[in-house]
Each structure stands twice: as structure tokens, then as C-alpha cells.
Design goal:
The structure holds two protein chains of two kinds. Chain A is 52% helix and 0% strand. By secondary structure, chain A is an all-alpha fold. By secondary structure, chain B is of the alpha/beta class. Chain B has two domains: 377 residues, Rossmann fold (3-Layer(aba) Sandwich), CATH 3.40.50.12780; 110 residues, GMP Synthetase, Chain A, domain 3 (2-Layer Sandwich). Helices cover 30% and strands 26% of the residues of chain B. In chain B, β12, α10 and β13 form a beta-alpha-beta unit. Chain B is globular and about 65 Å long. The mean pLDDT of chain B is 94. The chains are: A mainly alpha, B alpha/beta. The interface between A and B is medium-sized, with 22 and 27 residues.
């Protein structure tokens, strides 16, 4: 990963820590593990991830359409951010 | 079949499984044969701790055919909560599925309840028609899973009264292909979204409840299955409007929203997204068979809190909130004057199961005290303004603070507790909790979290925690949850993630 991508992931983890379920350690969830199925996030918390991406990276889901699988893991979210930046 | 002469077809659009009417008849007959062989008798209660799949509906009709009473249970309840409900309802048996938690299975067996897998039908086909109108048909537990359960008991007569009222108000044509994304252990999802159309011969499409990945593809789901009707809750719409492409096929004819009224702005957004003007709030109270007030013609200007006219019910707004004295016309509020919402309907529950005390506190002379605040406008329409019921509405799921408090009160190192509703952009409300602990050690917080997690279904777990020195009470010793919430708002909540990360509990 490049330094920029590392920073995106680090920022994402800081955010996820504010919305995660308390009983699961963030560090125990792999980059490509599903965020909801792993028990880190409540299912509807994905909405907060969307708001985070809109506010911090200007991603317009209403305009671009949306594939829920792309928000399933931290790796997927970082890839989405990188694609939007490209 | 329990309302009309045949059910509709039944489908799981996510899994792709489906039963046509002939399949339904056969699957019910297999289960009648199996339940009869197991000795199910008229009046026996049957727990159904699973739902939102084809087999659930076959089990329900089989139980009813034999004169039994079905008790759908939230599949997410802990073994402790299920045991509490078993002690209250004393079921003859429980029908489970392959996803039922092992601890729940052990709790059922440990309580002497005969457990049978829904897939284990045997091969004996049987039919029966033993239900009578005034038999107990359905118990829906709305609270008390951690202490004193409160179960809404409906008879076949009260359920039919609800369905026939809906049929007279709305017809069945708009419900030709109905989608249910709501849990089947709630009145809204089960009685109205599922059973009203399906038992009227219309087709039912059932999905797992509240699954964001499904909601995000809602438009395609509607198109692929040519859905004509669906009901949901505001939090689902917030997600769908933001993340799902709208349907393109214009098949939707009618949309209901329950559990909490839409704001006027969200109401118009849903209309725009769905492509139909026939979108309305439905005022659903489990005790009255759910949808009891709404708009038969929903093409009206959107308005905050507007729900409409009684459906098979007389709606009154009164100044009184007590059931200890007969109601009088003098208590009636003037047009536009806020007061307590009361309902009079033949769809009213028989009562709270074995809780005459609770029934007496909610019902007088057939009038039901809802606990909601509203007005009747100049047209006679009900407009909801708030509620005084002690509950937290988390994305349409009603959570009762007393249930959470009851668990914490049994924790050895907690001396006082108060849980309360916190406003939330996504869910509408989430749970907050203030607790007085014996010490300030993080280990005690971790132990309390583990204790609560083993006793409470996950959706009831608090989102934010405050450790406080005392819980303020009124001079009569009662907790004012709003006052506790206000006091906590000025304090920093616990960093539960950090506390639990220091020594993970599970």
C-alpha cells in the first residue's frame, strides 16, 4: 500500500472506532473481513459509513449508484475512495 | 383458510425458494400430521423462535388448525430471555429451525419444552379444523423478556376483525404481490404486512428482516418481483432513499409506513422514489391488531404526524389517561387540542396474557389507552404529536427500558440504573444507560457488559454508557428518565470500546 492509501485506511479505522460495537476489537478484524458479519458493525451502521464517505471524500452515492458489496470491508471502502480520487 | 378459502402463494425472493398454493396446503398438512402425532391439543401454546421464511407460515396455520395458540419469538433473544418467556407462557412445544441458537435449544429442553425442527415434518398428511373464533390464537410478547413478560393475546375473532376492517377499507387488489421486510414476531410485520394479504389469497414475498444489503437493492427487488405493496419503517426508508436505485417498473400501488410517523419531507421523498402517491403512515398498535388508523386514499398533502382515520376503530383524543373510571364525553378534547389517544375496536386483544393487572391499566369498557399524544383535526383525522409510553423506538423495534434495567439490577456490583432513549440520525432512537457501580474499576464495567450481553438480545444493548454517582428520583421515588438523560448529556460517556479492548470479554 502507498502512504496515501495507508493514511486513508488509518483515518477509516479512527472513524470506525467511533461507530463500532464495543464488544469487538477493531484490530481483530482483517482488512478484507466483512465489517457486519465479523460483529464489528451493526448492520444499519453502514449508513454512517456512507455519510462519512460523502462528507470526507465527496462521494455522491445518489449520483453514482451504489453497490453494497463495496462497503462490506475496510479494503473495499479504501478501494472505493481511491477509485473516486482517481 | 382462516380468513378466505385459500392463501396466496409464498416466496422468499432472496433465497429463491417458493411455495405455490398447493405446496402451502401440503406443507401445512404435513405439519398438522406431525403436531397431532406429538399430541398437540386445543389450547396448547407453541413457541416459534424463528420467522421470515416459508416454514414459519406453515407452522402457524398448522398450529391454528389444531386449535393451538402460536407464540412467535424474536430469534435474537438470549437463552435467558427465552427461558423467562417459557416460564410465563408454558408452551407445550417449540418449533425451531436450523439457525436457532444452541443455548436457546438447551434452555427450551431444560424447561421441559418439547423441541422439534420445522424441517422434520414426517410424511403423514392430515387436516383439521379445530379452531374456534374465541380460542386464543396468537401471543406477541412486547416487553418483559427479562422479568415480567407482557404478552398481547389475540383470539381468532380479534384477528379476523382487524383483517376484515382492512379489507373493507382498502380492498385486496393493491396487495396482490405484497413484500414484507419486517420481522414476523411483531404485530406490524406479521398480522398486517404478511397475514392480511396472504390469508386474503394474495401473494406474499418474505425477506429476512432489516437487512441493509437487501434494503440497498430494494428498487431491483421491487421490479424483479413486480411488488404492488410493501410496508416498512422510517429508518428503512432513510437507507433505501440514499442507497438504492428507485424501481423502474412502476408496479407499486400502495406503501405503508409504521412504527413511527414519517416527517412530511421524508413522506414526499418516499412518494417520489416509489413512484406512487399512495404512501401513508399507518398507526399500528399490537393490542389492536396493528394498522388501526390510516388513509384509505393516501393521495393527500404530506403532513408531519398525520395518520388519518380509524380503520375498524373509533378514535378519540381525551384529556384523561386513567382506566380507573368510565370515560365520558366531557373528557374529549376540542378539535386541535392535544390529548391522549384512545381506541375502540373489535380487533382489540383479549388482554395481556395472564396479566389482568396490565389489562386493567390499559383497557376500560373496551376502550384502549394507547399512551400516545395526538390531536383530531377539523376533518376528524388523527395527527400524532408524541408519546408518553416508556419505550425506545430503535428503527421500528420497541425496546422497553425496564427490561434493560431489570437485567442490570441483578448484577451484583450495580446499585442503581436507568436506561433511556437517545436521539439518533439512523435509528431514530438508540439506548443510553446510566449506572451506579460499586467501584470505578474498568473490570467492573467489563463484567457488567458481559453480564448484560448474556441476558439481553443484542439490539437492546445500550449504545452509550454513563457511570454516575446516583440516579436522581422524584420525591415519590420514581425515576424520571428524561431528567437522567439530560443530566448525562452534560457528562462524558464511558469509552466502552477502550474499556472492553483492554481485556476482551468474548
Amino acid at each position: 500500500m502507498s502512504g496515501a492509501v495507508d493514511q486513508v485506511l488509518a483515518d477509516l479505522k479512527v472513524f470506525l472506532r467511533t461507530i463500532q460495537k464495543p464488544g469487538k476489537a477493531l484490530d481483530s478484524v482483517g482488512t478484507d473481513e466483512p465489517l457486519v458479519a465479523s460483529g464489528l458493525l451493526d448492520s444499519l451502521a453502514i449508513m454512517q459509513v456512507v455519510v462519512y464517505l460523502e462528507e470526507n471524500y465527496g462521494i455522491d452515492f445518489a449520483a453514482n449508484g451504489f453497490d453494497p458489496d463495496r462497503l462490506a470491508s475496510m479494503g473495499g471502502i479504501v478501494a472505493l475512495i481511491e477509485q473516486e480520487r482517481a | 383458510m382462516f380468513l378466505d378459502l385459500q392463501t396466496g402463494n409464498l416466496a422468499e425472493p432472496i433465497s429463491g425458494r417458493a411455495w405455490d398454493r398447493a405446496d402451502v396446503v401440503r406443507e401445512v398438512a404435513l405439519r398438522v400430521g406431525r403436531l397431532r402425532a406429538l399430541g398437540l391439543a386445543r389450547g396448547d401454546r407453541v413457541f416459534l423462535p424463528f420467522g421470515n421464511r416459508l416454514e414459519f407460515f406453515a407452522e402457524l396455520l398448522a398450529v391454528w388448525s389444531l386449535g393451538g395458540c402460536a407464540v412467535p419469538i424474536d430469534a435474537r433473544l438470549t437463552a435467558f430471555e427465552v427461558s423467562t418467556l417459557v416460564a410465563a407462557a408454558v408452551p407445550r412445544l417449540a418449533v425451531v429451525d436450523d439457525a436457532t441458537d444452541a443455548a436457546v435449544l438447551a434452555a427450551l429442553a431444560g424447561s421441559g419444552v418439547l423441541v422439534v425442527q420445522t424441517a422434520d415434518t414426517g410424511s403423514t398428511l392430515a387436516s383439521a379444523g379445530l379452531s374456534r373464533l374465541d380460542d386464543d390464537a396468537l401471543i406477541l410478547f412486547t416487553s418483559g423478556s427479562t422479568g415480567a413478560p407482557k404478552g398481547v393475546l389475540h383470539t381468532h375473532r380479534s384477528l379476523r376483525a382487524r383483517w376484515i376492517a382492512l379489507r373493507e377499507q382498502l380492498g385486496v387488489d393493491d396487495f396482490a404481490r405484497s413484500l414484507c421486510m419486517l420481522p414476523t414476531h411483531f404485530g406490524h410485520g406479521l398480522i398486517c404486512n404478511c397475514l392480511f394479504p396472504w390469508l386474503s389469497g394474495q401473494d406474499l414475498f418474505i425477506t429476512p428482516p432489516f437487512r441493509p444489503d437487501i434494503i440497498m437493492r430494494l428498487g431491483k427487488l421491487l421490479d424483479d418481483n413486480r411488488i404492488t405493496f410493501m410496508s416498512s419503517v422510517p429508518s428503512v426508508w432513510k437507507l433505501a432513499l440514499k442507497l438504492s436505485k428507485p424501481p423502474q417498473a412502476a408496479t407499486l400501488r400502495r406503501v405503508h409506513v409504521g412504527s413511527a410517523p414519517l416527517s412530511a419531507a421524508l413522506w414526499e421523498d418516499v412518494r417520489s422514489w416509489t413512484g406512487t402517491r399512495q404512501v401513508c403512515n399507518t398507526y399500528g398498535i399490537t393490542e389492536t391488531g396493528s394498522w388501526v388508523v390510516g388513509l384509505a386514499n393516501a393521495d393527500v398533502p404530506a403532513q408531519d404526524g398525520l395518520v388519518g382515520f380509524g380503520w375498524g376503530a373509533v378514535v378519540r383524543v381525551l384529556r384523561t389517561c386513567v382506566t380507573s373510571a368510565p370515560l365520558t364525553a366531557q373528557a374529549e378534547c376540542a378539535v386541535g387540542e392535544p390529548g391522549y389517544v384512545w381506541l375502540n375496536t373489535p380487533a382489540l386483544m383479549k388482554g395481556y396474557f395472564q396479566r389482568d393487572d396490565l389489562t386493567a391499566a390499559a383497557v376500560i369498557d373496551g376502550w384502549f389507552f394507547t399512551g400516545d399524544i395526538g390531536i383530531l383535526d377539523a376533518h376528524g383525522q388523527l395527527v400524532l404529536k408524541g408519546r408518553e409510553r416508556d419505550e425506545i423506538n430503535k428503527g421500528g423495534m420497541k425496546i422497553y427500558p425496564a427490561d434493560i434495567d431489570a437485567v442490570v439490577e441483578r448484577f451484583a456490583h450495580a446499585s442503581d440504573v436507568c436506561s433511556f432513549a437517545l436521539e439518533d440520525d439512523i435509528y431514530g432512537q438508540v439506548v443510553g444507560i446510566a449506572v451506579v457501580l460499586a467501584d470505578a474499576q474498568d473490570a467492573t464495567v467489563r463484567a457488567l457488559y458481559a453480564w448484560m450481553r448474556s441476558h439481553l438480545a443484542e439490539p437492546k444493548m445500550p449504545a452509550r454508557w454513563w457511570r454516575v454517582d446516583e440516579i436522581p428520583r422524584t420525591s415519590r421515588g420514581k425515576i424520571n428518565r428524561e431528567a437522567v438523560k439530560t443530566a448525562c448529556a452534560g457528562q462524558t460517556p464511558l469509552d466502552l470500546v477502550a474499556i472492553l479492548s483492554a481485556a476482551p470479554t468474548a
